[in-house]
């Protein structure tokens, strides 16, 4: 009786790392294995719709793919967005590649609130070339992946740093052309540059121009405008964003607390010191509300942070028996 993946004692041929315990919350490396299987199912008739479906299955809508390597003229770094990722994978096969898969060894995983990061320092991108000659190319480097921590577990960022590559030619082919110096000289030449075909390199150079034009192409597709009108609209909106003042953050009103004696009297007296005409009416209103003695003078102390007429911080207000205020310094 053969065991199935639903059997609790099932041992996966890919090791315990690839065993699925939940419907889709699997190990991140298993997603790379599924991507390899999807690439192997590609046919010669696979069109742009097939590649768009491939990118939708394994990459987020705002995903980015970055390649870093060093050529003869210096280091290179290319970053492309989600809309250009399908075309990148298709150019790999257009350059004569018949098979493509990735091998991750000794990768490290780190879990965050909304994402999972996989850091593999020993990653190999293996491509099988059928033309111009039968060659196996192993491109080695460091691959850093960021997956979304949800049911789909799609790739949000892809960063592959290429360190070295090897081109392997079978001995049988060398034995067949041992007597032909021209063929041997052709076999001794590299068919890739840092493991990438010329089709892929030319596309990455083109992406340097295409990536900033994504906004123009999206506007043309949405509003059916001419290229010149799309450019004018985008430039005008960009100019508006540059000229517009930055929005100020909303500030919550802060309440200041001051410890004062007889706060009711202090408030009326501090307002009385600002305007001479309005102080008289305010003092009369305050005097009507106060219970004043019928004989003598009552002094109401008032200490304010605002200096009085003579520059003193503390002054007092005297109340006459007739109900009028008189300030004393």
UniProtKB/TrEMBL annotation:
Residues 245-289, 310-329 are annotated as: Disordered. Residues 263-280 have a biased composition (Low complexity). This is LIM domain-binding protein 2 isoform X7.
